[in-house]
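We emphasize that the prediction below concerns an isolated chain of 205 residues; any contacts that depend on oligomerization or on bound cofactors are therefore not represented. The input was used exactly as deposited, without trimming of termini.
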Amino acid sequence: MKNNIMIILPIVFIFDLLIPFILAPTYKGYNHLTQVMSVLGNSKAPLHNVYNAWLIVFGIILIVINFKVYTIVSECSSLIAIILFTILLIYAIGGCILSGIFSVGEVKSLATLSEKIHGYGSVIGFMCLTFAPLFVGIYSYKINNIKFFYFSIGCFILAILCFSCFVMGDKPNAKNTFLAFEGLWQRLSLLFMYLPLGCLILLKK
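Result of the prediction step, given as a token string:
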């Protein structure tokens, strides 16, 4: 019973990926393939307050559950626990809470202070979260769960590849190529980052 709070982690990850699909129909012209999720939080989106509120709530939930993740992982390795705790904390603050408070515009112009805080916070948060599957994999190896080790490392490699495509997506020479599907690459990146973390509950009996 003491680990029941961990069940919340995969649930909120699923919600974070699904909510954009729920809100998008209200925003005429929004394209999941080419536009990032945070565009749903810009002032022109009909339900932007809902999406921004979700990001803040999501970040707070991650911070709370992060302490439980630390407790579980620290039973095996204090170093891995500290690194994972730091990764999740930075993502929760930069990629979620700050992104919810300071909304982005329809495009990546970073013209206003709000857009700059959102942009830099998201980039730092995403970059940190990319390495979460790696350290979950190392933790899995240390507790002799080899199958989950390979699963986590596979997710790490795919997260790196998708995140690289996402970063290159807004480059001029990426226009009219598969790299231009920034929305798709962002969602796939998050999926592969979330999977090992969301499945941590499976490693505890």
